[in-house]
Design brief:
- By secondary structure, this protein is mostly beta strands.
- It has three helices and 43 strands.
- The protein has a 29-stranded antiparallel sheet that branches. Strands 1, 2, 3, 4, 5, 6, 7, 8, 9, 10, 11 and 12 form a twelve-stranded antiparallel sheet that branches.
- The longest helix is centred in the first third of the chain and has 10 residues, at about 5-15.
- Involved in the assembly of lipopolysaccharide (LPS) at the surface of the outer membrane.
- Component of the lipopolysaccharide transport and assembly complex.
- Belongs to the LptD family.
Length: about 750
């Protein structure tokens, strides 16, 4: 190796620039080089030959031969030239010539290898100011080059008349470019700009989208622009133009603070689609013809830490109409409601507190009217879990208090408190015991209780309340044995529970509001629950015992797990919600069974059988079978009622036996497969009670190291709000390092 200080001193005496590779570096940076041989000519030409390597700062240059003319300041590298940039990218060439400290230069047969296996090549290159690289007859791809056929075209590539790489702003621009697939031209771009693959966030236009056909938009085109405001906030603006309705513009603003986050998405459009009047499920006339013209929406969420224990936040979701969300494919359409809230919550050791306000906007106008939906202003929740006490028990406290206001319907206030003490222990026989003492108490004030969702005959304002003390003792007695020569194990576990509480029943609750206990779930999952209502506005009272047997077998990768049980009750409440399974002293038996004979099959079923009517009151099942390359799924659910009647505005006149007792009897199925680089899936959902499909669809696609294609099909047979049957076909194309764009039909 030649002495570095000698070379540097020579450069300084000649009053020329020290050699610089890539971006400008300081002349104080040491320069190191390795070469098999070197020579100095009297005309000022320095020559290094044989595996020449030069380092300065974070830059490096490698070539078979490098010459430096001290008179002109021109450096020339020939033979297997490679320039290593600080960002990790490498530029290869057969010949490179630089001047002005390598800020300016030219090269031939250029090949650049960047992040994510991206590659940019050109016949020639001109470098300006060390920042701009102009390539002629450029080619760009992120696909692997076939090792057996290196001359074969990549799966996709951009082939352009010229390309410009801006290393300062991390952009690559193509002029007169063709997108080629397997060497065949597919799409022409007069101009195309993209971020450098090394950039994860940069301002610029994103991949546009185009759809040849949409039911409500017709043919439409979208063009998004991303603005990276700074390191922690950005803005994305998207314009949409369509042939069947007015244009739309949407924007999403995101900001990440040290103490929280803010994410706001808003949009506006001039919707020209008009819908006519139609009749909903309950026979009501619905008119949505006025939901057109200037429309918009705003979805926003923010969370901010006030301290280590307190958090404040908001979730705002508002839209001018459900039809606008449908017409412009706004995310969230298809749900029953848009929910908004403001909240303050705190966390402590064993405790949690939250106060919030809730508002709802109905989207399924065929069933849910906005004027029937509640405003919760406010709601307070507190939960506390204590440490074990001197008796070995643990005390817990829960409360949920709220004020509910409805324009049409019952407005009520509730104060609720639940206190519970649990004492687990076991004995020498292996029995596991749990003693529970609980006190539930509610107090209510309700106005207009004759309206929905109560429809009570009483008029005016009512003050009511309830107090329910409960004592429960539960015993699990698991027995364990091994079999199959020690390779299997069996668990036999009888479970017995006794619950004692005053007999309240629904009769005692006649004039109490009911906001959270509109359904009663008596299944294997709630067999041993103290309260089998979904909330606390209705409570299970009376004397009852629950009996169950749990068994499990596991051996050599096989599993069978089951639970069966019944409830014995002293008091019978005949006016409980229909089909509860508790119309006699001895309840309907409930059960669950899971069978997994191997890794290829898994079956789970649960249900409730009524021995007096010889009918199944509730049942569901799920099957999953197949190998990793081919998988089948199937599901079934049956219930003799549907919960939609809670939202029916004509419930009082039609009665509970109108829409409520319409059966829910559905089957679902699906299949998925993948083979090498191909994948496909399909699904269906059919209502057996209505004798029609609810929805079906599928997906077929291909993906490799640089490209992905998915074709999705969805057909909807049911009505959501004002939307009739609809068919959607979507094409998604993914190009590595460039992005994803889709086509909807």
């Amino acid at each position: 190796m030649a002495p570095q200080d000698m070379f540097a001193n020579t450069m300084q005496r000649d009053n020329t620039h020290i050699i610089v590779i890539g971006k400008p570096t300081s002349e104080r940076d040491p320069l190191t080089y390795l070469a098999d041989s070197e020579s100095y000519a009297k005309n000022g030409l320095v020559t290094w030959e044989g595996n020449v390597r030069i380092w300065q700062g974070e830059h490096a240059l490698r070539a078979d031969k490098i010459t430096y003319d001290r008179n002109t300041g021109v450096l020339a590298a020939t033979g297997h030239v490679a320039i290593m940039e600080p960002d990790g990218s490498t530029t290869y060439a057969t010949y490179m010539e630089f001047s002005h400290g390598m800020h300016d230069g030219i090269g031939t047969s250029i090949y650049m290898k960047m992040e994510d296996n991206a590659k940019l090549a050109g016949n020639g290159m001109r470098r300006t100011n060390g920042l701009i690289n102009d390539l002629s007859h450029a080619v760009y791809t992120a696909c692997e080059i076939c090792a057996k056929r290196p001359d074969a075209p990549p799966f996709w590539q951009f082939q352009a008349y010229g390309a410009t790489q801006d290393t300062e702003h991390k952009r690559i621009e193509f002029d007169h470019a063709w997108l080629k697939m397997l060497g065949l031209p597919v799409f022409y771009f007069p101009f195309f700009s993209m971020s450098d693959p090394s950039v994860k966030r940069q301002s610029g236009f994103l991949m546009p989208g185009i759809s040849p056909h949409d039911r409500y938009l017709g043919t439409y085109f979208t063009l998004p622009y991303f603005w990276a405001i700074d390191e922690h906030q950005d803005l994305t603006v998207r314009g949409l133009a369509s042939t069947k309705t007015g244009p739309e513009i949407t924007a999403q603003y995101r900001n990440r603070f040290n103490f929280g986050m803010l994410d706001i998405t808003a949009g506006g459009a001039f919707d020209t689609n008009r819908e006519s009047r139609y009749v909903n499920t309950f026979g009501n006339n619905v008119n949505s013809s006025g939901e057109y013209g200037l429309q918009g929406y705003i979805f926003g969420q923010g969370n901010f830490s006030l301290s280590q224990n307190w958090l404040v936040g908001a979730n705002i979701n508002l839209a001018t109409s459900a039809n606008y969300m449908r017409d412009y494919r706004v995310p969230g359409y298809g749900a029953e409601t848009l929910n908004s809230n403001l909240f303050l919550e705190g966390y402590g050791t064993g405790s949690y507190a939250r106060i919030d306000a809730q508002a709802y906007q109905g989207l399924n106008q065929g069933v849910i009217q906005n004027s029937d939906l509640p405003w919760v202003l406010p709601r307070f929740t507190y939960a506390f879990q204590g440490q074990p006490d001197a008796l070995g028990g643990r005390f817990s406290l829960n409360t949920t208090d709220f004020d509910v206001y409805r324009v049409n319907g019952v407005s009520d206030q509730r104060g609720q408190l639940q206190m519970q003490w649990d004492r687990p222990f076991h004995n020498s026989l292996g029995q596991q015991w749990l003693v529970t003492a609980r006190l539930d108490s509610n107090i209510y004030r309700a106005t207009r209780s004759y309206q929905q969702p109560l429809y009570y005959t009483a008029m005016g304002t009512k003050f009511t309340g309830q107090v329910l003390p409960t004592i429960a003792v539960k015993m699990n007695w698991p027995f364990l044995r091994s079999f199959a020569h020690g390779h299997g194990s069996q668990i036999f576990e009888p479970i017995v529970q006794a619950i004692a509480a005053p007999n309240t029943g629904n009769s005692a609750n006649s004039y109490m509001p009911n906001e959270d206990s509109l359904s009663y779930e008596f299944t294997d999952t709630t067999l041993f629950s103290l309260n089998r209502y979904t909330g606390t506005d209705r409570l299970d009272g009376g004397l009852r015992a629950n009996i169950g047997v749990h068994q499990s077998w596991m051996w050599n990768g096989h599993t069978i797990d089951m639970l069966v049980g019944e409830s014995v009750q002293e008091h019978i409440t005949h006016n409980r919600i229909p089909y509860s399974g508790l119309d006699h002293h001895l309840s309907d038996p409930v059960g669950r069974l899971r069978v997994s004979p191997n890794q290829y099959v898994d079956v789970t079923a649960r249900g409730r059988y009524n021995p007096w009517t010889h009918q199944v009151d509730y049942g569901e099942g799920l099957l999953s079978a197949g190998i990793p390359a081919l998988r089948f799924t199937a599901g079934y659910i049956y219930a003799p009622m549907t919960p939609y009647y809670y939202y029916a505005t004509n419930y009082r006149t039609s009665g509970v036996n109108a829409p409520y007792v319409v059966k829910t009897n559905e089957i679902t199925g699906g299949v998925s497969t993948h083979w090498r680089q191909y994948h496909a899936s399909g699904f269906f959902r059919r209502s057996l009670s209505r004798k029609q499909f609810v929805a079906n669809g599928g997906d077929i696609g291909y993906s490799n190291d640089c490209f992905g294609l998915d074709i999705m099909y969805i057909k909807q047979y049911t009505r959501i709000g004002g939307e009739q049957r609809n068919t959607t076909v979507m094409f998604n194309f993914t190009f590595k390092t460039i992005g994803t764009f889709g086509i909807n039909g």
